[in-house]
Amino acid sequence: MNNLLDQITALAKRRGFIYPTSEIYGGLTSSYDYGPLGVELLNNIKRLWWKEFITKRDDMVGLDSQIMLRPETWVASGHVTSFADPLVEDKVTNKRYRADHLIEAWLQQHQDIKDVVIENMSIDEMAEFLQTHAVKSPDGNDITRPKSFNLLFETHLGVVAGEKSTVYLRGETAQGIFSNFKNVLDSTRVKLPFGIGQIGKSFRNEITSGQFVFRTLEFEQGEIEYFFDPEGTDWEQLFKSWQDAMWHFVTSTLGINIENLRWRKHTDKERSHYSKDTYDLEYHFPFGWKELWGIAYRTDYDLKQHIQYSGVDLQYRDPVSGRTFVPHVIEPAVGINRLFLMALVDSFVEKEKRTVLQLKPQLAPKLVAVFPLVANKEELVAKAHSVYKLLKAHDLAVAWDERGNIGKRYLSQDEAGTPWCVTIDYDTLKDDTVTVRDRDTTKQDRIKITKLIDYFHSLFFE
Ligand code: ATP
């Protein structure tokens, strides 16, 4: 297990960012809960995503569709037949692994073999590779031949006319967008090109575990379907503009280091048959370069499939020319939890015996922490409390701490990623000024209480 990932996992648990799900019963595989600080960070990411991609734009609308849809949806989309991973089993322990992951790990130990592109391999080619190289499980045991394992979770609606009916927990949020395409057209004033976006839970019966919240059974996606007229639209330019929008969100809005980001174009063999172009925006996680955010030109595949399976006309009618056609679509799809993990990894710094989460203020679970210099002086505590209330009244996320000494409180807020700490001391009682300490520089400023709100606003919006 990776050292940096271990450190981050420990910090996340200790400070209430992330807990293992059902820990008191021994945990549930690849499942995590978000604690008091974690849920704030998660909500901040979702709020920023929504603001940037829905609220701020004139060509986007939002949606919130259900987790369970009519099962025909997943037949039409192709998930029932081909949403699968190559599964192998350790013949001794019966632990399950993804064949492509075992091959990836094997190749890392055999760097002389360079011409293998795992993404291009069919399940039979993986089987042959595993056999030829006698690849073992991580426990050193023989493994079974890979077989296709469907990732959709199945469940059943209550008894209907004596029969159980199978439904699936959605494997992606996108299909709820396609199936509401006509509703959005009929109920709003959207005109092509336009997009529909939503944030919501998706479920995949993932085989692997051990990469913290990178790959979980239950996760949140932020998905956009951007519809356009294929006639007269330069799709390559449109695709590029969405890549730029994704890049801007990650680097500028979330403040992630560009050295830790790169684009990877899907190979022709790897790409879905209906897609004309697909890129992954990858982040350099502690366990390697991995997909953070995918963008695909899905053509008119999904709408056409739903037209065929539902029998409903999902065409668009151009209001000027009267021409009817099925729009094409570009899909940027991200995992909110992967953005979360990236934010933790990218902001984690250890310096001068301090562990600091250098999160952008917009992401930080708490923006300011307020301390009375000492906890046993009533006047100081009362004054500090009035400052705490003032900041709260201005909708700032404020923490309160009166335990231990100031130094320990600073260390504690550094770990939580709080950008500023405000200390109320004896001078405050005389001149109404407070000390504001900056998390990243540790510099301290003396500020009038009446100027505090403007001070934080200027730093927050710089
Ligand atoms: P991967 O190859 O890593 O399994 P994918 O290509 O299957 O991902 P998509 O179907 O394109 O993923 O889903 C869009 C986004 O949803 C991904 O870029 C990723 O950020 C996120 N995502 C997918 N599966 C998971 C998961 N099991 N846990 C957390 N996030 C996920």
What is the CATH class name of the largest domain? Answer: Alpha Beta
The largest sheet is:
7 strands, mixed
Radius of gyration, taken over Cα atoms and rounded to an integer in Å? 26 Å
Residues in β-strands, percent: 25-35%
Low-confidence stretches: none
Bound molecules: adenosine-5'-triphosphate
Task: Write a brief caption for the model.
With 462 residues, this protein is an alpha+beta fold. 34% of the residues lie in helices and 28% in strands.
3D architecture notes:
- This protein is α+β, with helices and mostly antiparallel strands and 462 residues long.
- It folds into 3 domains: 2-77 and 155-348, 2-Layer Sandwich (BirA Bifunctional Protein, domain 2), CATH 3.30.930.10; 84-150, Herpes Virus-1 (2-Layer Sandwich); 366-460, Rossmann fold.
- 34% of the residues lie in helices and 28% in strands.
- It has helices spanning 3-14, 36-55, 72-76, 79-82, 99-109, 123-132, 174-178, 181-187, 235-253, 301-310, 336-347, 378-393, 406-416, 426-431, 452-460; strands at residues 18-20, 32-34, 60-62, 84-89, 96-98, 147-150, 153-160, 163-169, 194-203, 218-228, 261-265, 277-285, 288-299, 316-317, 324-325, 328-335, 348-351, 354-357, 368-372, 398-400, 420-424, 433-438, 444-448.
- The radius of gyration is 26 Å and the shape is globular.
- Adenosine-5'-triphosphate binds next to strand 10, strand 13, strand 16 and helix 11.
